[in-house]
Known about the structure:
Blueprint: H1 3-20, H2 24-35, H3 40-46, H4 56-91, H5 111-125, E1 129-130, E2 136-138, H6 139-142, E3 173-175, H7 181-190, E4 195-204, E5 216-226, H8 231-246, E6 252-259, E7 262-271, E8 288-297, H9 299-304, E9 313-320, H10 322-329, H11 342-345
Parallel strand pairs: 1-4
Antiparallel strand pairs: 2-3, 4-5, 5-9, 6-7, 7-8, 8-9
The structure holds phenylalanine.
Amino acid sequence: MSPFDELEQVRADALDALTACTTLPALAAWEKQYLGRKGQLTRLTRAVGTLPKEERPTFGKRANAIKQELTAAHEARLAQVKQEALSKDLAQGAVDVTLPGRPVALGHLHLTTQTLRQLYAIFAQMGFEVYEAPDVELEAYNFDLLNIPAYHPARDMWDTFWVRDEPHSEARRLLRTHTSPGQIRAMRERAPQPLRVILPGKVYRYEQITTRSEHQFYQVEGLAVGRTITMTDLIGTMHQFAELFYGAGRKIRVRSSYFPFTEPSIEIDTDCILCGGKGCSVCKYTGWLEIAGAGMVHPVVLQNGGYDPAEWSGFAFGLGVERPAMMKYGVKDIRYFYGNDLRFLRQF
Ligand code: PHE
């Protein structure tokens, strides 16, 4: 038989054999036998070298055409066999189409987000709207307009991440060290209307990371400006917050403090949620937990915000987010909030 005839013979045999294949393993064996590296067609194709030169192109062309034909025929047969197998399975009831699907693993909100939303809800009840301010802030908003000039020692209270792109610019930028610069932004947008906002968001400090402090954390700032606002309003708001967040019956304690942008300034504690004031390791045996820095908005800050301090007054407070969540949920280490450890996250 000439190699040309052999080629046609292999083709005919292969097509016959293919129709006889009714299972996937049979099809795989067929593929190996005819199209495989050591298959019949492949072996024949290699015989091209034994042919006279002028016949080689015709032979090669034909061999290729057959290879393509067989490959396509194999694919078609494969699809057919699979389809038949499926129909058979279905007819036998092997596939129970009423079985529920595999559940998709659902995530949930991060403890920080959950805590933030609790805070939003609590302050919404008291008429505070959420006001967003930028994380990358102008130096003037973070410091100067809040009554903290460059020479002021209070700048040392915040170790700062500076943005390096404009070192000599008037408009130096930094990662905000607190949410208080949002006070200026909110006031400048709303003046001379009364306002009641909370300013949530991340703040950044160039600090040693420990179990109690991170270089980034959340704060929720509060600001109320009106014509008759007094310290009593501030204390009442903080008491209400303590009861709604930590539970009914909470007491608060007010201590005097210092912030450049409030006058007078206070620090607010709540009686320890764990021991109720008797003293324990959570409150370090003081019976009290610090919950906020606060005070009456400094007249200079009111003015910088566009309000005449002779007519307007206001209060401001700054709450942490992670620390209250730590107290409420018994989290011992603030680093868990940023560790992305599912064993931690799944607990909440
Ligand atoms: N910005 C202050 C801080 O980060 C907290 C604060 C806010 C104090 C508002 C008073 C009024 O420490």
